[in-house]
């Protein structure tokens, strides 16, 4: 969306008329606003562009989140393609697991262990990355 051009009519709300009116665009005081005059009551008003900058930022943020999601899925797919030698084990809270083990989880499906700490493991599943407990014998 861009600003209505100077000397064009623009249909928008007039506070004084308390209804939508045609306004004659007078000037562009900034790159995101237009000064315009109601064609009925002659009231001057400044019309601002919708917050496209904020919208763009939101879209960008969403794009980054989407990229993060696809990144872990990319890792998952890559790992599964090259997982010929990795052991496959069913998840069990009491078991101690090692990095690069393929984990079969009843709820989350098949994942691989990206990091293993003393009592928890970071597992990359197809849909999400999860921290699970282990080694609780
Ligand atoms: Zn008016």
In short:
The protein has 2 domains: 9-52; 84-137, no CATH class. 22% of the residues lie in helices and 40% in strands. It has one helix at 52-81; strands at residues 9-14, 19-30, 33-38, 44-48, 88-90, 102-105, 109-116, 120-125, 129-133.
Account of the protein in words:
With 137 residues, the chain is of the alpha+beta class. The chain has two domains: 9-52; 84-137, no CATH class. The chain is 22% helix and 40% strand. It contains one helix and nine strands; from the N terminus they run ββββαβββββ. It has one helix at residues 52-81, and strands at 9-14, 19-30, 33-38, 44-48, 88-90, 102-105, 109-116, 120-125, 129-133. The strands form two sheets. A five-stranded mixed sheet has the order 5-6-7-8-9. A hairpin with a 2-residue loop joins strand 2 (19-30) and strand 3 (33-38). The protein is rod-shaped. The termini are far apart. The model has no long low-confidence stretch (mean pLDDT 89). The structure holds zinc ion (ZN).
List the helices and strands and how they pair.
Layout: E1 9-14, E2 19-30, E3 33-38, E4 44-48, H1 52-81, E5 88-90, E6 102-105, E7 109-116, E8 120-125, E9 129-133
Parallel strand pairs: 5-6
Antiparallel strand pairs: 1-2, 2-3, 3-4, 6-7, 7-8, 8-9
Bound molecules: zinc ion.
